[in-house]
Design goal:
- It is an enzyme of class 2 (transferase).
- This protein has about 240 residues and is an alpha/beta fold.
- It folds into two domains: about 5-70, Beta Barrel (Ribosomal Protein L25, Chain P), CATH 2.40.240.20; about 80-235, 3-Layer(aba) Sandwich (Alpha/beta knot).
- Helices cover about 30% and strands about 25% of the residues.
- Strands 6, 7, 8, 9, 10, 11, 12 and 13 form an eight-stranded parallel sheet that branches.
- Strand 7 (about 105-110), helix 3 (about 120-140) and strand 8 (about 145-150) form a beta-alpha-beta unit.
- Helix 2 (about 90-100) packs parallel to helix 3 and helix 2 packs parallel to helix 6.
Length: about 240
């Protein structure tokens, strides 16, 4: 399998370019690639470029070749609105959501979220999750990197997302996910934290016009629910 790398700037048409230190280190020291090995570079615009690794001393360069614009984005635009989860669960959720074709992830602070992040810690974690998304694109073949938004309080999210279709997963919901009509544009899918949404939050959703839907009779973990819903929606309307 040819190694893929996200290039942080716009890729030029042909020629040779120096690889950023992080890419060169990963290619030469981690993957143990050699001079003349094949690479694929992508810059997030939907373009990917065949390249050949050129090694000069400790520096890595890429000799650019054929440009392609393969369509690997799902026709279904689903944004995962994920209540903050503890430990490394958020990394897992972001990684798998990107693999499953999510067009974005919005982390929200919920009442029962175990993880609490503000200020510099929130900024660092947000930057980390964006890099998790980049790495997931490198692995799964996507050439457009989904945006991971900064952390928002749940109430703030509800105020700024009034113009999009929104569904909240809730075990007690009377409607099933399969009853949701196909959205005309993007669909925001709200996933609760480990302890679930509080009664006050469910009341907020009702007042904000967010549809509550269920995923069957079993209660799923926060790191399972959103990904299961994404896969189900991709099978209905996406590219599965």
């Amino acid at each position: 399998m040819i190694s893929r790398f996200h290039f942080p700037d716009v890729l030029p048409d042909g020629g040779e370019l120096a690889l950023p230190e992080s890419i060169a280190h990963h290619a030469l020291r981690v993957l143990r690639l050699h001079d003349g090995d094949a690479l694929v570079l992508f810059d997030g615009s939907g373009v990917e470029v065949d390249a050949t690794l050129v090694v000069r001393g400790k520096q890595g360069f890429a000799r650019l070749g054929t440009r392609r614009c393969p369509e690997r984005e799902s026709p279904l635009k689903v944004v995962l609105v994920q209540a903050l989860a503890s430990g490394d669960k958020m990394d897992w959720i972001v990684q798998k959501a990107v693999e499953l074709g999510a067009s974005g992830v919005i982390p929200v602070q919920a009442e029962r979220s175990v993880l609490r992040l503000t200020g510099e810690r929130a900024d660092k974690r947000h930057a980390h999750w964006q890099q998790v998304a980049v790495a997931a694109c490198e692995q799964c073949g996507r050439n457009v990197v989904p945006q991971i938004e900064p952390i928002l309080p749940l109430a703030t999210y509800l105020q700024v997302s009034v113009d999009v279709a929104r569904c909240v997963l809730a075990p007690e919901a009377s409607s099933a996910l399969t009853e949701v009509p196909r959205p005309a544009d993007a669909l925001h899918l709200l996933i609760g934290p480990e302890g679930g949404w509080s009664d006050a939050e469910m009341a907020m959703f009702s007042r904000a016009g967010v549809n509550a839907v269920g995923l069957g009779p079993r209660v799923l973990r926060t790191e399972t629910a959103g990904l299961a819903a994404l896969a189900a929606l991709q099978a209905r309307w996406g590219d599965f």
